[in-house]
Description:
The structure is a homodimer. Chain A has 15 helices and 18 strands. The first copy, chain A, has helices at residues 4-14, 23-28, 50-62, 115-123, 141-147, 154-157, 192-196, 230-242, 255-265, 285-301, 313-324, 326-331, 349-363, 389-408, 427-446, and strands at residues 19-20, 43-45, 67-70, 87-90, 97-101, 106-109, 127-128, 164-170, 176-180, 205-212, 214-215, 219-227, 249-254, 275-283, 304-309, 336-339, 366-372, 377-384. By secondary structure, the first copy, chain A, is an alpha+beta fold. Chain A folds into four domains: 4-90, 2-Layer Sandwich (Uridine Diphospho-n-acetylenolpyruvylglucosamine Reductase, domain 2); 97-215, Uridine Diphospho-n-acetylenolpyruvylglucosamine Reductase, domain 3 (2-Layer Sandwich); 219-329, Alpha-Beta Plaits, CATH 3.30.70.2190; 334-446, Alpha-Beta Plaits. At the A-B interface, β9, α7, β11, α8 and α10 of A face β9, α7, β11, α8 and α10 of B.
Amino acid sequence: xxxxxxxxxxxxxxxxxxxxxxxxxxxxxxxxxxxxxxxxxxxxxxxxxxxxxxxxxxxxxxxxxxxxxxxxxxxxxxxxxxxxxxxxxxxxxxxxxxxxxxxxxxxxxxxxxxxxxxxxxxxxxxxxxxxxxxxxxxxxxxxxxxxxxxxxxxxxxxxxxxxxxxxxxxxxxxxxxxxxxxxxxxxxxxxxxxxxxxxxxxxxxxxxxxxxxxxxxxxxxxxxxxxxxxxxxxxxxxxxxxxxxxxxxxxxxxxxxxxxxxxxxxxxxxxxxxxxxxxxxxxxxxxxxxxxxxxxxxxxxxxxxxxxxxxxxxxxxxxxxxxxxxxxxxxxxxxxxxxxxxxxxxxxxxxxxxxxxxxxxxxxxxxxxxxxxxxxxxxxxxxxxxxxxxxxxxxxxxxxxxxxxxxxxxxxxxxxxxxxxxxxxxxxxxxxxxxxxxxxxxxxxxxxxxxxxxxxxxxxxxxxxxxxxxx
Amino acid sequence: xxxxxxxxxxxxxxxxxxxxxxxxxxxxxxxxxxxxxxxxxxxxxxxxxxxxxxxxxxxxxxxxxxxxxxxxxxxxxxxxxxxxxxxxxxxxxxxxxxxxxxxxxxxxxxxxxxxxxxxxxxxxxxxxxxxxxxxxxxxxxxxxxxxxxxxxxxxxxxxxxxxxxxxxxxxxxxxxxxxxxxxxxxxxxxxxxxxxxxxxxxxxxxxxxxxxxxxxxxxxxxxxxxxxxxxxxxxxxxxxxxxxxxxxxxxxxxxxxxxxxxxxxxxxxxxxxxxxxxxxxxxxxxxxxxxxxxxxxxxxxxxxxxxxxxxxxxxxxxxxxxxxxxxxxxxxxxxxxxxxxxxxxxxxxxxxxxxxxxxxxxxxxxxxxxxxxxxxxxxxxxxxxxxxxxxxxxxxxxxxxxxxxxxxxxxxxxxxxxxxxxxxxxxxxxxxxxxxxxxxxxxxxxxxxxxxxxxxxxxxxxxxxxxxxxx
Lengths: 471, 471
């Protein structure tokens, strides 16, 4: 609880109208899209500019008040849940596109801008901002930056980090820092831009970003390919890449996901198969057509029961939207949905899909899997009910075993959703003691008072790895 | 000076045959490719594996002995000059290609592998490692990683960092850390891979790296375009990019560089012009041909006096080799050559080229300029003589003013050569006090004893910015 006096100090900075602390408001910002994490903040503030952010941080620093920056709350690892209370920072007043620089192919934006708004604006100029997290219609650039969001185009175009050229950020002591520039190359000291992107609000508050753009691909084609077995789908993925084709999108859905998506979107997706690949290529028309022809052939060679090409742009968009809505579609099936994003080297996808199936059976939980097959980034999604404690225990054990399987296959505990609070206990499994000590040294060096999104990334204790006997 | 006893401890780790301390050896490793920096190390060690590196680092840590990791010594910012003495680490015994993984499109190498050897090996499999620093025939991957090397293909393909997926490194306390993985996406904590790449040996000793590969472009064309004025060349660069074409290579040479290069390479380069652009495009044949036709047209529209296409692959390679040899060519003209790499947003190239000319005139020094025009990464190169103190003072002032001009245009003090010891005094001009404090906190957190390449990146004092009156 903050004192009336303290609240007034915050109001003096950002104006009474931008500070909330009613019970309804505090409740509204007590959770994000992650199941099973909730905690009340003490105050919600929506600063109007960088200077206000700096003043707020200084005040928080002086009084040891935690700060949780928050975009649209689509976070899936409890990264924006205010589990230590404190101040939730909103960016609804810092949502401007500052500059679109066509000559240097950059766009400079405030953190509150919606991801899709950036894409739309630049595409009107023949430019392209590739990162496209599934939540892009509501997620903010600030959230994408904090989480280093991925998306459906990661295979060919990379993730958010690959498009960040410069940042303005407020440090834990309130100082304002500028990193990078509109520069294709810059090696002036440590790469702080890459350090801050994906740091989940634990090192600095990003207040402005300059993003790299590329020319918009002029042509694209999308195909959908159905398979009798998951192996066939996985082998097709490998074969496409072995043919030296890097599609823009190479998405996988299992039967269960496909059924839910069709039931939700009603676009006439075929469901009489065990696995489906949604494949998109973009670029120059001739190249795309050649690639798609070859992909078509590869799908057929690997036992596809049906391969169909989207006939119009609308049809292609419909397919991609259906895939992006997988999460919403699955969410309707049971009260609670827990989405994971264990990621493995792409050659290990068949093993990983099998491991997930085996683990789901072992713990008798319902897991449906979809994800970015080309990236090795799968989203095993558990349909459950947090009110059922006994089931939740089994769910937790199943996910622990999925993390272990992923790491044993050379993978990671999170490909694009972040560590947040949800996976903090497992981080050491991936990065080891030495990795933890380096990350802690950085955190301690920059944020000695631990006011920046405390509890995220760094857990109080690391989970012990289970001894798993797979007979 | 290390005691006999101490030297023996190092010999116990890596074997007598891998430890050198004769005066000749110490002299041989007392400098790199940077003019005007020289200092004797105490010992040269060539460890045979990561475990030995770890033991060496532990020993150095215990006894506060500086460690300078060194590739082939092509560094241009005194990054590998042992200015604090100590141990120079060589990687000639750690020069193996560990694995080429075609399915995941990665190559895992030790730091001592020559850059070009990596390119050659992967190209035989239809794969491609894009980073191509001009020194690639002799530079090592370890050096490229420490410096985040750029090269001629940066515009389209990015720099070394964009191709590093995983690292093994030895921390300042001797612990071995592994970052990343063969993973297209990984957000498990802070991006230590990006932090270590480009950290110039000040945070960790990289002992292994997994590099990302892409399919080898199947076709390429190269053209050379001559211009009467630098403005015309610069406008051509802007016009090509405005046409939404991103060439692989978009290199600039001024008349003085061109003359030196022709004199060196004798391949019949035309020298009757003020500026030349070397432009390469790669990809699918149809796309490349379309792009090159359009580029041809744009060059003509912007006043090119001559545009010629390389007729064979050999001819194209000859042109690129000539450009890569610019440094060697210029080095023959006067006793000392100082190469800079101030980098600006690409739209600012004309202003930057003019600023360089004006500054060279003002201080009466000879500067020739070439570089990566598409990246805004210019290499103003001063031909001088370090034995002439009075001239060297003017040279230093000229470079200071070039750094200022670059920063005033939104640029940086170094695009691809690193800060090293040479530019440490200027780093704060680019990144500000807040940037310095963050970088120092990271350095202090990881290397509290300051044994890792001390004196690099961080200077004892920052240069005061001159008050420049440009009338």
